[in-house]
Amino acid sequence: MLVDTIETPNPNSLKFIPNMIVSEIGPVEVFKDKEDATIPLATSILAIEGVTSIFFGDDFISVNKKAPVKWDDLKPGIISEINDFYSKGNKVVLKKKLEKNNDQKEESEVVTKIKEVLESKIRPAVARDGGDIKFKSFNDGIVTVELQGSCSGCPSSTVTLKRGVQNMLKHYVAEVNSVESI
Questions:
Q1: What CA–CA distance (Å, rounded) separates 153 from 94?
Q2: pLDDT for the residue numbered 15
Q3: Distance CA 82, CA 22 (A)
Q4: Which of 27, 31, 61, 102 is most buried per CB count within 10 Å?
Q5: pTM exceeding 0.70
Q6: How many CA atoms lie within 13 A of 114 on its CB side?
Q7: Is residue 177 part of a domain?
Q8: d(CA 83, CA 116)
Q9: Checking phi first, is residue 129 left (phi over 0); if not, alpha (psi -120 to 50) or beta?
Q10: Of 19, 52, 87, which closes a domain?
């Protein structure tokens, strides 16, 4: 299997494209420091010295590394783990479980609009760079989001957040005054 790699704006993050489905449940980020690394592919990639976190998108995997480690040293091992995972007959890294969720909270119209803009206009652009953006809250005109994957810790994330995300949200949702990241 051929796994493509694409550089991201974050020099410490690389996007791996296995040309297979990665996540059916939406974006998921896994950190080396967390004990919840129960995803087999995440566990094996995080075991590689120098890898700090992994982000699973719909059809890509972003891997973050420590600054002094070189991608030329990490790429072969990461690609090998991805190939090994899929060669064992696995079709998807994160499978969707069919469950009914009756705990859905009633959202305000403004929050619904913000989420729609994030989903349709902003998330696809962020995913092209190997990351994701998650809505966290909206209070007093301030939208709080979480940047994940390649976007987390990226040197240009502040510019992206203020010039891209904030301007886009303010354009489509009049109630938005600013955007902050956690």
A1: 24
A2: 95
A3: 10
A4: 61
A5: no
A6: 26
A7: yes
A8: 35
A9: alpha
A10: 87
Amino acid at 46: L
Helix segments in 25-175, DSSP class H = 40-46, 71-87, 109-117, 123-128, 157-159, 167-172
- What residue numbers bound the domain in which 54 lies? 4-87
How far is Cα 44 from Cα 115, in angstroms, rounded to an integer?
Answer: 33
φ/ψ of 136, rounded to 5, equals -115, -50
Report which of 115, 166, 107 is spatially closest to residue 141, judged by C-alpha positions.
166
Residue 139 lies in a domain: yes
> Which residues, other chains included, contact 133 with Cβ-Cβ below 8 Å and sequence gap of 6+?
118, 122, 123, 126, 145, 146, 147, 148, 151, 165
Judge whether 93 lies within some domain.
no
Q: By 3-state DSSP, what share of the chain in percent is helix, strand and coil, each rounded to 5?
A: 35, 25, 40
